[in-house]
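Q: Two folds, back to back.
A: First:
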Amino acid sequence: MTTKPTRREILAAGAVGAAAALGGPFARRALAAPEREISVKPTLITLFLRGGQDALNAVAPYTEGRYYDIRPNIAVPTPDKEGGALDLDGTFGFHPALRGFKALYDKGMLAPVVCVGSKHPSRSHFDCQDFMEYGAPGDKSVRDGWLNRYLQATAGPHGPEGEFRALALQGRLPRSLRGRYPVLAVPDRMGFGGRRRTGDEDVLDLFDPLYKAPPSMDKPGRTGERPDEDDLTVSGRTTIATLRKLEEILANKPAGREIAYPAVSGRLGQQFKKAARVIKSGQGLQVVGVDWNGWDHHINLGVPAAGNQYFDMLARLDSAVATFFEDVDTMKNQIVLLIMTEFGRTNAENGNRGTDHGHGGLMFLVGGKVQGGKVYGDWPTLAPGKTYQNRDLAVTTDFRTVMSEVLYGHLKLHPSRRLFKGFEDEKKLGLFA
């Protein structure tokens, strides 16, 4: 007795067949035995908190009296008080919503970098995001993202190495991944159930007739060449085949343990879950881009307590990141998460119990090989004369210093490759051994 194959089986067979037709490393991986040992390459995930995440409440300088003087309504209390900061080193403390971050810090896996950013004076979201993603403060002639330049610089002699080498886990590519190297943007509707959301479930099917090759007249069962075949058609067909394969990866639980992502982690948790599944699939993922908008808190930054918008956003970030690193625990030495934002906020609260666009900001690095458990960056204090224009945190570490240490220390970019135009490395922070 025979049974009709399921759609999932048909998709899997079609994706593998398409991979074989495309040739190269994608085909070899698709046809390899599923029981093979997974070899994980050094992987970088970048999370951009868009809007200007408030550095002073995420990592609070709770020993400075001036912090409480200029933020009388929104400052994080000292560690000895209810809802107080989670002490790190006797000087700084995490916001109380960042308990998962604190656990990673205590394990030596998480490193905050304070007073980091661009030395360009702009306070425009758009300019500062572009400067950071292109890795070129003040230079609008640079149009390839810093991560795309890395992908170009390390591509094999025969071109791109695999469709899943780089992904943006969102519908549009962030500027950091835009450039000559092809990178796949993954729509949100592509989830874990083997089908896209109702209403969108046949989007790929609708595009099939536009790109698929017709049956061959000479060789039954095979496809021939379209008379209008061009690079766009080939690219479209390749993209559809790749998305089909990705759909299968996301629809099937990986071998071994997979941690449940709690509801509090929200959409961000689901994006990290997708990243974990692709990493575990052994497809050679190396670079992932994730965005999260909404960090422009001009009003109601609020007393740190559950139910406050800023508290709840930090709690979601905390849950997603902590769960992800629990999920990929056996691979943590090959993974680094870099969390960034375009600038910090004003040191003093405004009249709406929020903060305005500032200058110096904050980065986090998380990973098994990160030299965590300490706060990095020169801290000039909040004293008068020590701040930028007497209102913001100074920038004492160029953001490209952090990016460079990730590129050379984690992704093992050859020291001869210089990806940041006109930038000479400052003193090393020592984020990697």
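A: Second:
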Amino acid sequence: MRSLTPTEHEVQCAFIQLCRLHESRYPALALAYGIPNAGAGGSRGQAGKMKAEGARPGIPDWCLPVASGQHIGLYIEFKRDKQGKAATHQKSIHSRLRLAGHQVEVCWDAEQAWELVRRYLGIVQSSTPPLAGST
């Protein structure tokens, strides 16, 4: 039986839908991008190709390369549920990104990630309609 907890992929897809929904109002979102992680379920051949192309373990799942406040960019690591924690190698990369001036956060659902982006960009009010399947 399938768990009612959304997968990390489902959470990230719902978050991307929110970003795209608001991109016309907040053009900075057009610069955001997802970072593929071959290690999580990728085939051996695909993972090897991605590593050869520069993929690194521990890099967060999503990036907004826009300066805001004291930070030069925002990274988000998505986890499946509140029990999901960053692995040791992820924490090391997150620390290095923070030292370089980025804000790095772990999020467990699309709405939490959207609220983080909203605060990061200084968006005062959010009029986010609920998405089908996002809880």
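Q: And?
A: Confidence is low (pLDDT under 50) at residues 130-135.
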